[in-house]
Amino acid sequence: MGRGRVQLRRIENKISRQVTFSKRRSGLLKKAHEISVLCDAEVALIVFSTKGKLFEYSTDSSMDMILDRYERYSYAEKQLCTTDSEPQESWFVEYPKLVAKVEILNRSIRHYIGEDLNPLSMRELQSLEQQLDTAIKRIRTRKDQLMHESISELQKKEKVLQQQNNQLTKKLKENEKNMADRAQWEQQSLGQNSTTFVLPQPEPPQLLLPSLSIGGTFQGQEAITGENGGRARPGSNPPMPSWLLRHANK
After folding, report:
1. Quick check: pTM over 0.85?
2. Is 2 among the domain residues?
3. How high is the mean pLDDT in each 10-residue block of the chain (250 residues)?
């Protein structure tokens, strides 16, 4: 007896369902590879498991290129199915061109960042290398120019700040000098306004001694200073004391 036809329905057993998924997934990927090789077709296969795990297969061209091509042709089919005016027909003509340009630009960007280099030949790689070297030289030239401009601007700012610093230092010195002159002037003013009291010096005391002549007569007196020892002018004879008169009469 031959094997009967299996009814397609969800497998309830989780283990059996996982085993079946692995087997059918491998067979599906194998068939996709076979049709791409045998028929020289571009194939893209995307499978998500029940747990959300991604399984994909694509031919030599990348998955992105195949998806872009699919979107382009699906859009073209939609445009064919609709009856639109002439401007929309022109959009239908321009859209594939724009998509092709975008695809070329995206490919160039990937090449510049070092991705998707396997399809390139030796000549294309050398051309890409020359383009990158030229771009690096331009970038370095621009960077050096910006650095020089920045250094020049900083030097100008430094010069301005130095001038301001010199002016502030000069003003500070002038202020210090003015303050010192003012303090000196105030000190001199106070010295001139202050009054000094000088007490008069007392005259040295004088001692008057009578001078007697040889005959017992009184001739005069001499004033002797206590300190200088000088002779003073003889003055008038003062009255003689009584005891001296009695002694003279004897």
Report:
1. no
2. no
3. 68 88 90 88 87 83 79 70 55 80 86 82 84 89 93 94 93 91 85 55 52 44 43 51 62
CATH of residue 46's domain is 3.40.1810.10
Query: What's the number of domains the chain is made of?
Result: 1
pLDDT at 62: 73
| 72 exposure class (CB count in 10 Å sphere: 0-12, 13-18, 19+) | middle
Q: Would you say residue 104 lies in a domain?
A: no
Distance CA 22, CA 227 (A): 145
Which structural domain range is residue 19 located in?
13-60
Six-digit token string for 107: 């490919």
Answer whether residue 19 is part of any domain. yes
Q: Residue 225 phi/psi, 5° resolution?
A: -75, 150
AA letter at 108: S
Is residue 27, in this structure, part of any structural domain at all? yes
Q: How many whole angstroms separate alpha carbon 89 and alpha carbon 100?
A: 18
What pLDDT shows up at residue 238? Answer: 54
